[in-house]
Specification:
It is a single chain. The protein is α/β, with parallel strands linked by helices. The chain has helices at about 25-35, 55-70, 75-90, 105-115, 130-135, 155-160, 180-190, 280-285, 285-295, 300-315, 335-340, 365-375, and strands at about 40-45, 100, 120-125, 145-150, 165-170, 195-200, 215-220, 230-235, 325-330, 345, 345-350, 350-355, 375-379. It has 12 helices and 13 strands.
Amino acid sequence: MPESEDLPAGGGDAGAAPRRGLDAGARERLARAAGEFSAGTTYLDTATYGLPPRRTSDALEHAAAQWRTGRARADAYDEGVAAGREAFARLVSVRPADVAVGSTASAMVGLVASSLPDGAQVLTAAGDFTSVLFPFLVQAGRSRGIGVREVQLDRLAGAVDDRTTLVAVSAVQSADGRLADLDALVGACRATGTQILLDLTQAAGWLPVDASRVAYTVTAGYKWLLAPRGTAYLTVQPELLGDIVPQAAGWYAGAERWDSIYGAPLRLAPDARRLDVSPSWLSWVGAAPSLELLEGVGPAALHAHALELANRFCAGAGLPSTDSAIVSLSASPDATARMEAMGVVASVRAGRLRLAFHVSTTAGDVDRAIEALAGHVHA
């Protein structure tokens, strides 16, 4: 089924609003949010895992104390799951009824992959994160297996044809921060009746997105959404829900969870909750507080802030400007050691240094990274 609407013009990202500068109100909201972080380093590695704000740490400490003292109630954890689902739905512009919750993005991609018909043809971006790729590749063992075709990211839209069943791609590439041209991709898929599965793991939280405009999205919550590892989301367009087989259905997928813990018959929730898996309770305690902090800042301000800082770094390091919160660069072999000595935390992916700029990042952090890398960046 083709997607229902075009993404907004201007940038080819995952439905972002046009780029705007930060006004005084946005800077005030960002300053309040930044005050909740207490990193002991210059932390530029949200693309690996996000730092928790104070409200999230407080919620986790309280939950751990309740657990330790025997005062925790199993059914009370449902409140955190519901709040996380609702906050995520608001963030990506869908209804809570269209959001399923789980623990990992790959398991949710696997639900879609295992539900594709025999002989389906899947188009992917070469070098994409394997959680987007492996769930489709393992389907090759079927009697009429799924075909998977890889092309370069910038050729993705042009490679869609009438035989393409599904395009599976990350909105933002994990290795280097490149953005998929989703305006072009949605247009190509509409013309051929092709569905799109979009991984928002490196996008949601800094890049404004509208998940309702593609068939499926998956998002891990422990990076840009600042939650503990063990939270993940799947969005499904309502008309496609019947196409997904709830392969991992258990009591938490029941229409009435606490009346679904024993015995037949099958009685699943009527909406996307039928795809839920039993949540990692303590992880979900931290989901909603972090999402609420991001909501308080607002998607447009988060986007502008990330790009302002990323481009401040690029200018100082002698790199071209960027449209991504993730900056990938070639650096001398001793650059990592120098950064560590100066307390700058980043990561190396695909043989290149990767830095990420988010709500917890300050201009001082950027300048510290520029200082640490002075003379070590290769054009």
